[in-house]
């Protein structure tokens, strides 16, 4: 990337919240002042409308020729398919407008749970989504806490999988009496995540082992580890209907835990999630803003949020300047 190319940020009009936070971030971490132009840029002017037949109509109202484009897309549970198609159309519009490089910033990668053929005649939709993004003309992907990290290999273009862990770590240190806590993984698959956080906080971790019959259906749960008189911090990559989290909270309390807090990266919170949280023993459910849930925050006083826009802004700056992003795997920018 030559110094003359500037960064342009694009977002759809719906769920602009995260893109606006990213655009306002001033990240000037670089001590060498190499290319000090940092974010703090306004979002590119775009028109995104629905035709009367519901087709998406999109145009960019300023030149993007030879620019380094970042399209920030915050995909929620209610309208995942609409947002995905809009993203593809926005990428393609930049491609045909001769952008030099197009990066899709999709912190909550859609269809990430459909990453393998787990039964006969099941599609691998995560791979299909990756192919569609590439076909639309994307050159680079930035995402966060992929449900399965091998999805990175589905792309024919480079994909950076950022971690929410440094931001979660900061939240725990600033908001929870963590010295009296224990990290809990709600399933065997998340043990690595809980163990890694426990290690960095110098705490123990516990594990809930469960046997699941069907997706979103919970069967028997067994706790491994001692949570007596501790604050249990459940960590996971996503929370959907929160049924599993609520059951985990019951078990932890039964086994002597004095408080249960859940921290998840992607707060999908679909279906009866809010009702389930209201009726559960969870004292708090903390989600990052990879998924828009501002409205749900107002509905449920037990929800809290961790802002990851700083991580995205810093990764954009590093990518633009050709610097390594691996610093962000361990550290969270202010
Ligand atoms: C948790 O509580 C259940 C039921 O009270 C008990 O059977 C189990 O042994 C306890 N587990 C631990 C690890 O304390
Ligand atoms: C959850 O609880 C809050 C207040 O505690 C209430 O305002 C809200 O309506 C409840 N939502 C549901 C879906 O039960």
Automatic annotation (TrEMBL):
Recorded GO MF terms: ATP binding; kinase activity; magnesium ion binding; ribose phosphate diphosphokinase activity
Enzyme class per UniProt: transferase
Reaction(s) this enzyme catalyzes, per UniProt: D-ribose 5-phosphate + ATP = 5-phospho-alpha-D-ribose 1-diphosphate + AMP + H(+)
The Ribose-phosphate pyrophosphokinase N-terminal domain, residue ranges: 7-137
Job description of the protein: 5-phosphoribose 1-diphosphate synthase involved in nucleotide, histidine, and tryptophan biosynthesis. Active in heteromultimeric complexes with other 5-phosphoribose 1-diphosphate synthases (PRS2, PRS3, PRS4 and PRS5).
Family listed: Belongs to the ribose-phosphate pyrophosphokinase family.
Protein's recorded name: ribose-phosphate diphosphokinase
Provenance organism: Ascoidea rubescens DSM 1968
């Amino acid at each position: 990337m030559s110094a003359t190319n500037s960064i342009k940020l694009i977002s759809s009009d719906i769920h602009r919240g995260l893109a606006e936070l990213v655009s306002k971030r001033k990240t000037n971490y670089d001590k060498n002042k190499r290319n000090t132009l940092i974010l703090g840029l306004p979002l590119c002017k775009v028109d995104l409308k629905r035709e009367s037949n519901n087709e998406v109509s999109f145009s960019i109202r300023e030149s993007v020729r030879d620019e380094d484009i970042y399209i920030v897309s915050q995909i929620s549970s209610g309208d995942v398919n609409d947002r995905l198609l809009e993203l593809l159309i926005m990428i393609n519009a930049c491609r045909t407008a001769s952008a030099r490089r197009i990066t899709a910033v999709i912190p909550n990668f859609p269809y990430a749970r459909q990453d393998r053929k787990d039964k006969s005649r099941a599609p691998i939709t995560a791979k299909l989504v990756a192919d569609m993004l590439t076909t639309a003309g994307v050159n680079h992907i930035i995402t966060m806490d992929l449900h399965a990290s091998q999805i990175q290999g589905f792309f024919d273009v480079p994909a950076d999988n950022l971690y929410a862990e440094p931001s979660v770590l900061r939240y725990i240190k600033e908001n929870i009496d963590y010295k009296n806590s224990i990290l809990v993984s709600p399933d065997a698959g998340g043990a690595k995540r809980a163990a890694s956080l426990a290690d960095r906080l110098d705490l123990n971790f516990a594990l809930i082992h469960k046997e699941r019959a069907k997706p979103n259906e919970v069967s028997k749960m067994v706790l491994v580890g001692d949570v007596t008189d501790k604050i249990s911090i459940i960590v996971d990559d996503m929370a959907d209907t929160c049924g599993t989290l609520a059951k985990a909270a019951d078990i932890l309390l039964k086994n002597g835990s004095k408080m249960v807090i859940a921290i998840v990266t992607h707060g999908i919170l679909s279906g009866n999630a809010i009702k389930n949280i209201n009726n559960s023993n969870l004292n708090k459910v903390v989600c990052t803003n990879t998924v828009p849930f501002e409205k749900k925050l107002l509905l449920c006083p037990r929800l809290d949020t961790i802002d990851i826009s700083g991580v995205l802004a810093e990764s954009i700056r590093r990518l633009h300047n050709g610097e390594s992003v691996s610093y962000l795997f361990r550290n969270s920018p202010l």
